[in-house]
Amino acid sequence: MELSTWLTNFRELHERARRKLHTSDERALYLEAREQLARTLLAAQGHKLQEGAAARRNFRVPKGLTLDVCFRSGPVRSRTLDISSGGFSCMLNGEPGESEHTGFVLWLPGEEEPPVVGRARIVALIPRSEEGNRRISFTFTDVSEEDRERLEMLIFDLALGYIRA
């Protein structure tokens, strides 16, 4: 199937999923197509997926969302650099512990959308920039399945917005 045809079909499935209009068969087809698109985009970005891992949980898109991170030393407000249904990265100042678990509140776009609230663990610390900030990547350790699904819908909305075919 030609890429533009496949993407048109996926966009239609995605919109039906957003409106919760899928039959159970369509839902299964949609989830399979979502995983396929995530694998393709991860490969295009040069990322390798660990065996058995879900691509849709690892696929990140650039998006600046308001974020409150709660460290032992106190809360910090930042913006995400990128987001996936498995985690996020942001720029922060300070010295968090490398394996520190944190609480977070991630504010989604749209006034009617409640924030995603959960816990996360630091998985990568990038050295400080000239401004004193450092890029920190987090993986979610405690996020509800409902919130993960809301994040995945947002991530694929964003990804589809970047793809022109």
TrEMBL record:
A Pfam family that the UniProt record links to this protein: PilZ
InterPro entries from the UniProt entry: PilZ_domain (IPR009875)
Highest taxon in the source lineage: Bacteria
Domain PilZ intervals: 56-156
Protein's recorded name: PilZ domain-containing protein
